[in-house]
Amino acid sequence: MSNIWKIKTLNAESDGIEEEICIYNSELCHYPIAHKIVNKVLEYCNTSKNTFVNDLLYTIKDLEIFPTNLGLKRPSECYLKQKLLFPGQPVLSSMIKHYKNYEILSQLGIKIRQDVNTILEKGPSVLKWNSYQVFSYFLEIKDELDSKEINILSNSKFLRSIETKVDKKTNQVLNDFIYAYSCPNLLYFPSTEIFEMGYPILDTTEWNNNFLANHKEKDFLKILGMKFDITCMELLQLSEGIPLLVENKSKKYFDILPIENGRSKRNKILWYLISEIKCKPKSKFNYIECIHNNEINFFAAVYSEPFLMQDSNSSKKILEFKYNYILSSPHNCYCNPECMVLGFSLLDTKWRKERSILCVKMDPSENEIIEKLRNFTYLNAEHAQKVFTYLNSVRDIFMRDSMDILKKINFVPLFNDDESSNYILISPEKIFQDQETEKKSYTQYKIDYPFLSYLNK
């Protein structure tokens, strides 16, 4: 290229006569003439609105006259220093008045910042993936990023993450960690509770100590799709989707020991759920709304099935119960173990202390009990005794209208003398009105089923 460039003098006193200005070769250190030319061009373009501006920009766009740390370069090869991430790039001289001329520099092809894709491609090799350095750069230029670039960042694996391993067979959270690079929109903001549930969080090992208090960084992470908490519905659905793994299968101790292991992923989720219900207002964490509008089975529970087993020491059959473990919703399980005799499900003992928060009732409602009694099957007199003992223990829940309904339902068993499974069902009303029954049986009913005496008040 020629060392002589003809331009119109750009100073205010110029009469527009073309002058020849020498551009010294790139071996010189400071390029004083090049500085003068570029600054004059920028100044002129900022103050003039005539058509010569476009011609001037077009002319110098392909000329190696822009002073950088690596010599004279074309504008398309240059970067601005304050928006530079990778070393070894041609940086425009700080003596060029760029702070007032971003728009003109951009028209010339000077890179105001480095391309998002270039950073993501070169990051591993040039920066050895210092994710905080990369993030800090994007934070600096966030106001210049368009929606497409934000989407690229959200879905690119450039942030370090850490998560606990979860045993897929047992669904237990292990004391082992996975380090990786993840997309911002798949990560959670650092939280001990979320981390212990087995979900990936941002690894802040490389980050500043004041990171957690920096609102600008937090706000930008939110823009990139990072999650700062888990919604109530997500927690319930996550818990529902985890297969039930019964830790204690003993029929004797299900009411004392928890159903699932303490390291179960579901347990971690439910502890987090409880803490969120306690500390967040209902408007932000709508647990009650979620469980009332959706039937989600996310609690471990147990229900019993009665059966008769032959007594090895006699010809009699004795009453036993088989216990089945399920996932249940708050509406379909209860906290009183005695209600199991009617076939209702019992909430895992681990969560019963939090029953008011979790909206799990102590006992079924009067209507629920009435519906059970309409078609209930008794296996023997002992079974009936257990049922009526429970009914008597909860008799205060029955209002007068419910008691009137119960009097008319055939749910009272009348057994043969041997108290076997051969029986008929009669209503309390029938017992009260039938004098013959009164003479023969009602006295015994008063002893065995005191609940009936309560109904007859």
List keywords for this structure.
457 residues, three-stranded antiparallel sheet, rod-shaped, 18 helices, disordered N terminus
Structure characterization notes:
The structure is a single chain. The chain is of the alpha+beta class. The chain folds into 4 domains: 4-113, no CATH class; 115-229, no CATH class; 230-363, no CATH class; 365-457, no CATH class. The chain has 18 helices and 13 strands. The chain has helices at residues 32-47, 52-60, 102-108, 116-127, 131-140, 147-154, 192-196, 215-223, 232-240, 265-279, 287-293, 355-358, 366-374, 381-393, 400-408, 428-433, 435-448, 450-455, and strands at residues 4-8, 18-22, 66-68, 71-73, 159-166, 173-182, 201-202, 299-310, 317-328, 333-334, 345-347, 412-415, 423-426. The protein has a 4-stranded mixed β-sheet, with no helix packed on it. Strands 6-5-7 form a 3-stranded antiparallel β-sheet. A hairpin with a 6-residue loop joins strand 5 and strand 6 (173-182). Helix 9 (232-240) runs antiparallel to helix 10. The relative contact order is 0.05.
Mean pLDDT, to the nearest integer, reads 83
Which percent band covers the strand fraction? 15-25%
Most strands sheet: 4 strands, mixed
Roughly what percent helix? 25-40%
Rg to the nearest angstrom?
Answer: 40 Å
Tell me the count of domains.
4
Number of helices: 18
* SS elements, strand count: 13
Shape: rod-shaped
In the sheet with the most strands, the strands line up as: 9-8-11-10
Low-pLDDT stretches are 1-29
Instruction: Calculate the terminal CA-CA distance, rounded to whole Å.
Output: 114 Å
